[in-house]
Amino acid sequence: MQSSFSNSVTTKTAVVIGATGLVGKALVAMLTTSPHYSKIVTITRRQVDYDNDRVENHVVDFAQLAEHSELFHGDVLFSCLGTTLKQAGSVAAQWIIDYDYQVAAATLACSNGIPHYLLVSSSGANCASRSSYLKMKGELDNAVKAMTFERISIVKPSLLLGDRDQTRLGENLASVILPTLCRLPGLKRYRPIKGEQVAERLLQLSIAQGTGIEELMLDEVFPQATGADGD
Questions:
Q1: Which segments of 80-228 are extended strands (E)?
Q2: What torsion, rounded to 10 degrees, do the Cα atoms 170, 189, 213, 150 define?
Q3: Is residue 230 in some structural domain?
Q4: Is 190 a catalytic residue?
């Protein structure tokens, strides 16, 4: 599917889940300054105060998401929700957050007629993977692709870089090693990328015209990332 940008400015309503994460925070900040969006609905598990009249924050129990169907109305649903195995406490708990909650939110948005769904997935997502995390991401991709949105955009970055609320030792080490390792032929698509770059691309996709399903890898969506740091 090809996307094309429109010169006309229309004001949209965006719904964002995962608004407190690395990509989600950056995305909400960008949406508040975009002339294309007049209302941003953030659905979170804890209260978030925004110093902007365009943003409405709603605190919900994601285990009871169906009780908040009225919040899933608008033009675009951005799904930036995600957690780590350490934060979740177990593989089963991580699946609930990263799969069950995601599917529930997408189902509500689709049922309510939101036309465009944007998902932050993973470069290695594969429902046949031996990795529980990558298998989960692959199954989530397949689940949302089976839904009847007018347009589905799935972006698949590798390791996300940026300031997080919680320190992740493994990711800190990977952020040092991977940029050098990924200069090898065939590995550039797994190069780390800043969360702000992913958020910016999500915004661009959301204001471009298009239909159908698009799955975009790092080297396809973020060409500036593959050439960063002197590469």
A1: 116-120, 151-156, 160-161, 193-194, 208-209, 212-217
A2: 60
A3: no
A4: no
Of the candidates 25, 137, 156, 194, the residue annotated as catalytic is: 137
Angle between helices 22-31 and 195-207 (to 10 degrees): 50
- Which of 101, 117, 133, 190 is catalytic? The answer is 133
In three-state secondary structure terms, 196 is helix
Does the residue 96 lie in any domain? yes
Condensed to tens digits (0 to 9), the pLDDT of residues 96-108 reads 999 999 999 999 9
Q: What is the CATH number of the domain that holds 121?
A: 3.40.50.720
pTM (predicted TM-score): 0.82
Q: Are 87 and 181 a contacting pair, CB within 8 Å?
A: no
| Overall number of domains in the chain | 1
Burial of 24 (0-12, 13-18, 19+ CB in 10 A): buried
Highest mean pLDDT range out of 67-71, 131-135, 224-228? 67-71
Rounded Cα distance, 41 and 54, in Å:
8
